[in-house]
C-alpha cells in the first residue's frame, strides 16, 4: 500500500526535473546546450530582429537540430515575428511557459546535445552584424569672421 501512495504523491508533484533553476534561467533548456542567446532588451531591438535570419541560417549550417526558445516576457508582436522567421527557415520555435518569465534572456537558440560554445551572447559571436554605424564628423567649419578677414 505504501508503494501506491508513494507513486500517487510523486505523480501529483509533477515530473522530476534535473536542475530546475538552470532550466528556468535558460528558458527550459540547459546552459551547456545553448548555442546563442540575447537579453530581453536586445531581443526587442530592431537590429537583432533584422539580423535574426542571418544568424539562424549560419547556426543551422553548423548544428543539427536547432531549436529556438522565446521568452514569454517579450511583447506579442516580437514573439510572432521571431516565430515567423524561425518557421520560414524550417526550424522549430516555441514560446516557453510563464515559469521562465523572470529569465534575463529574450531568445535562446539551442540544440539537443552539449554545444561547447562560450560565450553564447549573439553580439559577441557576430560583432560585425551588430556594429553601430557612427556618424562621420563633418569637417570643421571656420567661423564667419575668420573666413571674412582671412
UniProtKB/TrEMBL annotation:
It comes from the Bacteria. InterPro entries: DUF1694, Ribosomal_eL30-like_sf. Pfam families: DUF1694 (PF07997). This is DUF1694 domain-containing protein.
Amino acid at each position: 500500500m505504501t508503494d501506491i501512495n508513494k507513486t500517487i504523491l510523486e505523480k501529483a508533484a509533477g515530473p522530476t526535473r534535473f536542475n530546475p533553476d538552470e532550466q528556468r534561467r535558460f528558458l527550459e533548456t540547459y546552459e551547456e546546450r545553448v548555442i546563442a542567446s540575447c537579453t530581453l532588451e536586445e531581443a526587442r531591438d530592431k537590429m537583432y530582429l533584422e539580423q535574426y535570419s542571418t544568424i539562424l541560417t549560419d547556426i543551422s549550417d553548423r548544428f543539427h537540430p536547432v531549436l529556438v526558445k522565446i521568452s514569454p516576457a517579450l511583447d506579442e508582436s516580437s514573439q510572432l515575428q521571431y516565430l515567423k522567421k524561425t518557421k520560414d527557415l524550417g526550424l522549430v520555435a516555441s514560446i516557453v511557459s510563464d515559469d521562465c518569465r523572470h529569465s534575463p534572456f529574450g531568445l535562446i537558440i539551442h540544440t539537443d546535445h552539449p554545444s561547447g560554445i562560450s560565450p553564447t551572447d549573439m553580439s559577441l559571436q557576430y560583432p560585425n552584424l551588430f556594429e553601430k554605424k557612427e556618424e562621420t564628423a563633418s569637417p570643421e567649419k571656420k567661423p564667419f569672421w575668420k573666413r571674412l578677414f582671412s
